[in-house]
Amino acid sequence: MDSPEELESVYLVAGRDFINAGRISTAIMDVLKRLGTNPEVVRRVAIASYEAEMNVVMYALRGKISLRVNPRMVTIEVEDEGPGIEDIDLAMKEGYSTATPEMQEMGFGAGMGLPNIMKHADKFEIVSEVSKGTRLFISVNQSA
Amino acid sequence: MPAQYHHSIRFMPDKCGGCMSCMRSCPTAAVRVRDGRAMKLDDRCIDCGECIKVCEKGAIVPLTDHMADLSKFDYVIAIPSAALYAQFDEDLPPGIIVAALQRCGFNSVEPLSPACDSVSVATEIFLSEYRGQLPLISSYCPTVVRLVQVKYPEFVGQLLPVLTPREISAKDAKARISAETRLPANRIGAIYITPCPAKIVAILEHPGMTNSYLDGAVSIADLYQTLAPAVSRVKEAVARMDAGETASGLSWAFLGALPRSVPVENTLSVAGLPNVIRILDDITKGKLRRYSFIECHACPEGCIGGCLTVENPYVARAKIVKLRQKLPAGSVVERKEVERSYRKGSFLMNEPFASRPLRPMDENISGAIAKMRDRDQLISELPGIDCGACGAPSCRAFAEDVILGEVGRESCTFLWQSELSKRVEDLARMVQLQGPLRGGKP
User: Fold this and answer.
1) A50 in contact with chain B, both atoms CB, cutoff 8 A
2) What integer is the mean pLDDT of B98-115?
3) Which of B27, B187, B195, B292 would bridge with B74, disulfide CB 3.0–4.6 Å?
């Protein structure tokens, strides 16, 4: 697994920590820029990782985001411990949201999170178990 | 290798005491201290001037023009930044300051307010017809433009291509004076009275333009020494107390000018580089999609916070607010006329903004990944307290410098100490193995 061609970084996310929310996607962006990644790839990964990070902050107890970069693709894996998603098909619908009114007041929970991740990824997988947690797999190819 | 960029800040190693204030204040980590002297990494520097503000030794100087440099022109026009009026008593009308400027050696003074008003109209037209990627980012502050070119190259296409008031003002004034005096345009100098060194960079090489219409810039702080006494000596009756400046024009000196003057929904204003950087990061994450226009200033509060001003930016703001009440309100330009000249292209930049991304860890992605892994490994060995003793602003920056071969690992006191104690242990172990040092066979 640990090939010299691959960079791996793991970041921990605390649920409900709105003060630090968004820092991990900024860190991921910085790493990609230092690697000389195509700006369009940076943008797509930034949007997808930010939405994923915010989902963990808003709904889960805690989570882990793993970034992997190799010359072919950038992958983001997000694993969280939390309520999980009951109906994934419904959650993937634009505009569907289980956000509380206060989350919406803060500008989140427009029901665009998961659809937006899918829109910006080349490959997207989601597995969830109710009352356990959710796992996302996102990849963006290096050549845009 | 990236091309050599023009800069407006010079480090003077002879005067540097090696205190590291500049290194710690630099928002783009462009300063290193080597052999007790600060030095600048030119490809990272965006000419914001934070280092000038904090250097107590006067070892960092802005490369602005001096009054003596202006004798090369036959006719010199001063174009004062609105921030200039905030450096004096708020009861002092612009007319007095303009009269004093003329005593300091300028042939005439061009008010910036009419250009501010026409640029507001031009921006409104541009925004209403723009169909590209949003949000658009203001290009008024040259430091912000360079920050985008270097750190956010993905947004160069979203920089507003409308000319700035200082450029419009210089262009119009030079054409008019040339017609009045019959002097060729190249004998006339249009000089900006600047609150920051970044405007110099935008005169030497204006992103988005083949050439700037301005010919130089004199620092407000430099000029203040001669201007302040001249102001108190102005006794003659001044014909126009407002000197052609208006309330809306003066408001360009601080944060919020465009949102105040352009009736466009969903605009956002941000000032101070760390805040600008956070906002640009948020744009990348897709967080600010609802905004159509973002006004960005590198200095706190806008141009009144420039490092070449003398007044505290918050006091300056209060003064401008008060001064505005005494100036003509409302726009001084004819909307139709601006629109006509906008259609002729007079308000638009003539070249696309170029991106100038920082050189990555390696030109080759595999090489960059390998170096990044080495960097991360080294970071895990470092104390992570960003003490700066190695001469780099953070452990992360130091690790990158080591991996790129700029400095050795031993520059870190902590690494050096642990390496030293390891060697001492090794030595002790060797002595133990070999028995007493008296020699002979073990």
Assistant:
1) yes
2) 96
3) B187
Phi, psi of A127 (to 5 degrees): -130, 140
- In-domain check, residue A120: yes
Position B324 scores a pLDDT of 93
Spatial CB neighbours of B339, under 8 Å, sequence gap ≥ 6? B121, B125
Condensed to tens digits (0 to 9), the pLDDT of residues B46-104 reads 999 999 999 999 999 999 999 999 999 999 999 999 999 999 998 899 999 999 999 99
Return the amino acid letter for B201.
Answer: V
**Closest in A35, A46, A50 to B368, CB measured:** A35
Beta carbons of B284 and A42 less than 8 Å apart = yes
Please check whether residue A100 touches B, CB under 8 A.
no
Q: In a 3-state reduction of DSSP, which class is residue B353?
A: coil
Cβ-Cβ contacts under 8 Å, A71 against chain B: 365-366, 369
Residue A86's domain comprises: 7-141
Contact A19, A35 (CB under 8 A): no
Across residues B288-304, what is the average pLDDT? 94
What digits encode the pLDDT tens for the residues B145-190?
Answer: 999 999 999 899 999 999 999 999 999 999 999 999 999 999 999 9
pLDDT band at B1 (very low <50, low <70, confident <90, very high): very low
Domains (ranges, CATH) in chain B? 9-60 (3.30.70.20), 67-343 (no CATH), 365-434 (1.10.15.40)
Q: Is A1 on the interface with B (CB under 8 A)?
A: no
Confidence of residue B2 (pLDDT cuts 50, 70, 90): very low
Asked whether residue A113 is assigned to any structural domain, the reply reads: yes
Q: What confidence score (pLDDT) does residue B434 get?
A: 78
Nearest CB to B284; choose among A5, A46, A69: A46
Chain B CA closest to residue A33? B360
Q: Which of A5, A34, A39 lies closest to B366 in CB terms?
A: A5
CB contact under 8 A, B368 and A34: yes
Report the pLDDT averaged over residues B209-216.
Answer: 96
pLDDT(B135) > 90: yes
Residue A1 forms part of a structural domain: no
Q: Assess if residue A2 is contained within a domain.
A: no
What is the Cβ-side half-sphere exposure of residue A25, based on CA atoms within 13 angstroms?
28
A71: CATH? 3.30.565.10
CA distances A79 to A11, A12, A60, Å, are 11, 10, 10
Residue of B281, B287, B372 with shortest CB distance to A35? B372
- Pick from A92-106, A107-121, B303-317, B388-402: least confident: A92-106
Question: Chain B within 8 Å of A42 (Cβ-Cβ)?
Answer: yes
Residues linked to residue B190 through DSSP beta bridges, in sequence order = B77
Question: What is the number of residues in chain A?
Answer: 144
CB nearest B370 (choices: A4, A46, A142): A4
- Cβ of B287 within 8 Å of Cβ of A50? The answer is yes
**Rounded distance between C-alpha atoms, residue B353 and residue B282, angstroms:** 21
A2 at the B interface (CB within 8 A)? no
**Residues of chain A with confidence (pLDDT) below 70:** 1-4, 107, 109-111, 144
Number of domains in chain A: 1
Closest residue in B to A108 (Cα–Cα):
B287
Contacts of B397 (CB under 8 A, 6+ apart): B29
Cβ burial A66-105 (10 Å sphere, 16+ → b, else e): ebbbbeebbbbbbbbbbbbbeeeeebbeeeebebeeebee
